[in-house]
Specification:
5 domains; alpha/beta; 7-stranded mixed beta sheet; Beta-Lactamase; disordered N terminus; 5-stranded antiparallel beta sheet
Length: 800
C-alpha cells in the first residue's frame, strides 16, 4: 500500500524535473541562436557579401537606441533610488555610459566616408564600458542596500557623466590618430567585450545567482558575448554587420525588460519574483496563514482555560482582546468589552489611579505588579494587577494585563494567622501542663526545706548560722523555678550575656526529671571543658527544655533513654560541613549540644516538615515548637542537624559559636564577685501594698543608706511625693497594687518631674514592663524575689 501511494508523487517529481530541464534548454537555445545565425551568414553568404548602405536609416536606428537607452537608464535609476541595491546602481551606470558613449556613433554616421574609425570605434568602446559596469555590479550583487542620499551627496553621478564625456573625447582623438586602423585597436576591444561577458556568466554560475530576473540577465550576457564575433567577422554596411546590431539590441532589450519588471514589482533585481515563485509563495503564505489561525485558536483556548482574567489594551486604553475569565469577571460579553475602555465599570475616584499606572507602564516599559483594592459590582475586592507593555511591528504600544482576585486568599490567610496563634497558645499551655507536676513537686521540696529549717532555728537559735544558708538556698531555688516559668511563658527579657551551657543543662534536667515520665531515663555527659557562649540565657534554656521534652515524648510509654551530651566541636576551614537545611556551617569552634532518644524516630516526610511553623505530630512527640527552636539557634549564629530513622530514634545536634577568649565564668557567677561596700543616700519613696514585702524592702534599703518614706498604693504615694517632692530624690515602686497601680503612678510622677529616677519591682517579668513603660524610661528593674546583693546592684545602676 505504501509503494502504490508513493508512485504518483515520484511521477509528478520526474515530470517537474523534465519540465525544468526543457525550460533550461529553451533558454540556452534562445541565447545561442545568434551564433547559429552568424555561422549561417558567414558560411552561405554570397561573394561579395551583400551590403545595405543607408546613412539616414542608420541615424534613425541609433537615435531610437539612444532614446531607449536614456529611458532604461532612468527606469533603472528610479529602482535604485527606491531600493538602494548596489547592483542596480552599476546597471544604471552601465546604461548611462552606453547611451552617452554610443550616441556619437549615430551622430558621426555621415563621417563614415571621410573617417571610418570615428564612425566605428564608439560601438566597441560603448559595449566594453557597458559590460565592465555589469561585471563590477555582479561582484557587488547580494550586498546590503546602501544609503542612496549619501551616494548622491558624494557627486558620484556627476563624476560618471564627466568620465563618459572624457571617453567620447578620447575616442575621437583615437579615431584621428595614425593607429586607429590598426588591428590591435578595435579587435582587442571586441575580444575584451567577449571576456567580460563570459566572466560575468562565470561569476553567476560560481555564486549560484539564479533569481528570476538574473536568469534573463545571464541570457543577455550570453548574447552580448556573441555580438563581438559578428562585428569582428563583418565589414561595415554588410548584412552581418546589421545583424550584429540586431543581436546586441536583443540582449539590450532583455536586460531592459528585467529593469522594467524590477521597477514595477520590488524595485530590486535580486528580490523580483517569477510567476512560479509567486505561486509557491502564495501557497506558503496560505499555509502560514492557516498555521497562524490555528495558533491563534490554540492560544485562545489556552487563555480561556486560565482562571485568571487576562486582557489586552491599546495605547488609548481600549480593550482589544480578553479571555473568558475577564468577561465573566465583569459579567459582559465580547461585543460590550472589545473597543471600550471599561472606565464606566470603575468607580470615579479609582479611575485616575488605573489610568496613571497604565500610562506609566506604556511610557517606561517597566512591568507593574501591585496589590490594590478594586470595587466590582458594588463590592471591594483585593486584587493583584500585572501590566506588561508590548510593541507591535508598526511601533504601536499596548498592554497585556491580568487580574488575580485574592480576596478569599487574604481572608483565609487572616484566619490561618488566628488559628496559628490559637495553636501556639494551646501548645504553650500544653507544655506548661507538662512542667506543672514537676514544678509543684520541686516547690513542695523547697517549702519543706524552708519550713523545716525555720522550725529547727526556732527550737535552737544557735543553729541559725547553719540553717539560714539552707533557707536562702531553697528560696533562691524557688526564685529560679519562677524565672524558668516566666521564660517559658515568654515574659523574660532578652539579654545577651556570657552563658555557661553546662549550668543551663543541669538546671533544665533538674527541673524536668520529676515532670517527665519516669520510664524515660535522662542521662547527661560533659566531654571536656566547655567554653562559654554569647546569647540570651532564657532563650537558650527554652531550646534545651524543648529538645529534652520532645525526646521524652517520642519514647512514649515504653522504657527508654534520653542522652544529653555537651562537647566542643571544631569545623575545619575548607571542609564542607552542612546543617539540616543544607547550608554550610562556617569554620570555627562550637559548643555542641546533642540530645538523643531511642524512641519512635521520624520518616522522611516528618523530617522535611518538622521545622515548618506550628507543624505538630504530638502522637509521636516532636511537636513542641521546633520552628521556634530553629529560629533561636539561627539568631545566635548557630546551626542545627537532625538525624532520625523510623523506629530507631532521633538525634538533634545544636552548634553554638564558642567564646574562646573569654574567662570561663558566666555573667551570673561574675556578678557575685562585685563589691558589697556600696551604699546610697537620700530620701527614697517606697511603694508596696504587701506589708511583709514592704517591711523587708524597707530594711534592705535602710541597710543601703536610704531614708525611707512608705506608701501602700499609688494614690498614697502620689500624695506623699507632692508634699515632699523637694526631699525625695528616688522612688522604688511595685506595679501590681490596688487603688492606683504602679504603671499609672509612674506616668503621673514623670509628668510632675520627668527626670525623677524610678526603680520598678515586679514578679511578672521584664517583657510587660518594657512594653508599657519603655526600658529607657525606667531607672532600674528588680525581679521578685530579690536578695540584698541583687537589690544593691540595681540601686547602684539606677544612680549612674
Amino acid at each position: 500500500m505504501k509503494k502504490k501511494s508513493s508512485m504518483p508523487s515520484q511521477l509528478a517529481y520526474r515530470i517537474e524535473y523534465l519540465t525544468r530541464l526543457y525550460e533550461v534548454l529553451i533558454m540556452v537555445g534562445l541565447a545561442v541562436t545568434p551564433l547559429l545565425v552568424i555561422g549561417y551568414l558567414v558560411t552561405f553568404s554570397s561573394t561579395p557579401a551583400l551590403r545595405f548602405v543607408n546613412h539616414g536609416f542608420h541615424e534613425i536606428i541609433i537615435t531610437i537606441a539612444a532614446l531607449v537607452g536614456g529611458f532604461v537608464t532612468y527606469v533603472s535609476w528610479r529602482s535604485y533610488q527606491a531600493s538602494g541595491e548596489i547592483f542596480l546602481r552599476w546597471l544604471t551606470v552601465g546604461f548611462l555610459a552606453f547611451t552617452i558613449i554610443y550616441t556619437p556613433h549615430g551622430l558621426f554616421t555621415r563621417m563614415a566616408d571621410h573617417n571610418m574609425w570615428l564612425f566605428l570605434l564608439y560601438g566597441p568602446v560603448s559595449r566594453i564600458v557597458l559590460l565592465g559596469c555589469f561585471m563590477y555590479g555582479l561582484l557587488q550583487y547580494g550586498k546590503p542596500a546602501e544609503n542612496v542620499t549619501e551616494v548622491t551627496k558624494s557627486s558620484f553621478w556627476w563624476r560618471v557623466l564627466i568620465l563618459c564625456v572624457m571617453v567620447d573625447i578620447g575616442v575621437a582623438v583615437l579615431a584621428y590618430s595614425p593607429i586607429a586602423s590598426s588591428f590591435w585597436v578595435r579587435t582587442p576591444m571586441e575580444i575584451g567585450a567577449i571576456v567580460l561577458a563570459l566572466s560575468g556568466i562565470s561569476i553567476m554560475l560560481i555564486r549560484h545567482i539564479n533569481s528570476p530576473l538574473m536568469k534573463f540577465f545571464m541570457i543577455a550576457l550570453v548574447i552580448f558575448a556573441q555580438v563581438p564575433i559578428a562585428f569582428i567577422l563583418a565589414k561595415p554596411w554588410e548584412h552581418l554587420w546589421w545583424l550584429a546590431h540586431i543581436i546586441f539590441a536583443g540582449g539590450f532589450f532583455i536586460i531592459s525588460w528585467g529593469v522594467s519588471r524590477a521597477l514595477l514589482t520590488t524595485h530590486s533585481f535580486s528580490l523580483a519574483y517569477s510567476q512560479e515563485q509567486l505561486m509557491i509563495d502564495i501557497s506558503v503564505h496560505k499555509a502560514a496563514k492557516e498555521a497562524l489561525q490555528y495558533e491563534k485558536n490554540r492560544i485562545r483556548a489556552i487563555l480561556d482555560m486560565v482562571g485568571e482574567p487576562i486582557f489586552v489594551k491599546d495605547n488609548e486604553h481600549h480593550v482589544t482582546d480578553a479571555n473568558r475569565a475577564f468577561y465573566d469577571l465583569y459579567d459582559m460579553d465580547e461585543n460590550s468589552v472589545i473597543g471600550n475602555t471599561l472606565m464606566e465599570t470603575v468607580p470615579e475616584h479609582e479611575r485616575e489611579h488605573f489610568l496613571k499606572t497604565d500610562r506609566m507602564v506604556l511610557d517606561t516599559g517597566e512591568p507593574d505588579i501591585r496589590e490594590e483594592e478594586l470595587t466590582l459590582k458594588g463590592h471591594t475586592r483585593t486584587i493583584i494587577t500585572s501590566k506588561v507593555r508590548f510593541i507591535d511591528e508598526s511601533g504601536r504600544r499596548g498592554l497585556v494585563c491580568s487580574i488575580n482576585d485574592i480576596t478569599e486568599r487574604k481572608q483565609a490567610e487572616a484566619e490561618k494567622v488566628l488559628l496559628e496563634q490559637q495553636l501556639q497558645h494551646s501548645q504553650k499551655l500544653e507544655s506548661l501542663g507538662v512542667l506543672a507536676g514537676g514544678i509543684a513537686h520541686d516547690f513542695n521540696n523547697i517549702l519543706g526545706i524552708i519550713i523545716g529549717n525555720c522550725e529547727l532555728t526556732k527550737m535552737n537559735l544557735e543553729t541559725a548560722a547553719r540553717n539560714i544558708p539552707k533557707i536562702e538556698a531553697a528560696a533562691e531555688r524557688g526564685a529560679g523555678l519562677c524565672n524558668q516559668m516566666m521564660v517559658y511563658a515568654g515574659n523574660a527579657p532578652l539579654t545577651i550575656t556570657n552563658v555557661d551551657m553546662v549550668v543551663q543543662v543541669d538546671e533544665a534536667i533538674s527541673m524536668l526529671k520529676e515532670a517527665l515520665s519516669q520510664n524515660a531515663v535522662i542521662k547527661t555527659e560533659v566531654s571536656g571543658e566547655i567554653s562559654l557562649i554569647k546569647g540570651d540565657v532564657n532563650q537558650l534554656y527554652q531550646v534545651i527544655m524543648n529538645l529534652i521534652i520532645n525526646a521524652s515524648e517520642a519514647i512514649g510509654p515504653e522504657q527508654g533513654e534520653v542522652d544529653v551530651l555537651l562537647t566542643m566541636y571544631k569545623v575545619i576551614a575548607g571542609k564542607t560541613f552542612k546543617d539540616n537545611s543544607d547550608q554550610v556551617i562556617p569554620a570555627g569552634e562550637y559548643v555542641c549540644l546533642e540530645v538523643t532518644d531511642n524512641g519512635a524516630g521520624m520518616d522522611e516526610e516528618t523530617k522535611e516538615k518538622i521545622f515548618e511553623p506550628f507543624y505538630t505530630t504530638k502522637f509521636t512527640g516532636r511537636g513542641l515548637g521546633m520552628s521556634a527552636v530553629l529560629g533561636i539557634i539561627k539568631s545566635h549564629a548557630g546551626a542545627l542537624q537532625l538525624f532520625s530513622q523510623l523506629g530507631q530514634g532521633t538525634t538533634f545536634k545544636v552548634y553554638l559559636p564558642a567564646l574562646l577568649n573569654e574567662h570561663n565564668m558566666s555573667d551570673k557567677e561574675n556578678s557575685s564577685t562585685h563589691s558589697v561596700s556600696w551604699k546610697g543616700n537620700g530620701t527614697l519613696l517606697l511603694v508596696e501594698d504587701e506589708d511583709n514585702v514592704r517591711s523587708l524592702a524597707k530594711e534592705f534599703l535602710e541597710i543601703l543608706g536610704y531614708t525611707i518614706l512608705e506608701a501602700v498604693n499609688g494614690e498614697e504615694a502620689l500624695e506623699i511625693y507632692k508634699n515632699n517632692s523637694a526631699e525625695i530624690n528616688l522612688v522604688f515602686t511595685d506595679l501590681g497594687m490596688p487603688v492606683m497601680d504602679g504603671y499609672e503612678l509612674f506616668e503621673k510622677l514623670k509628668k510632675i518631674k520627668s527626670e525623677l529616677p524610678i526603680v520598678v519591682s515586679s514578679g511578672f517579668g521584664d517583657t510587660e514592663i518594657n512594653t508599657k513603660l519603655g526600658r529607657d524610661n525606667v531607672a532600674g528593674v528588680v525581679s521578685k524575689p530579690y536578695s540584698l546583693d541583687k537589690l544593691r546592684e540595681v540601686m547602684k545602676g539606677a544612680l549612674l
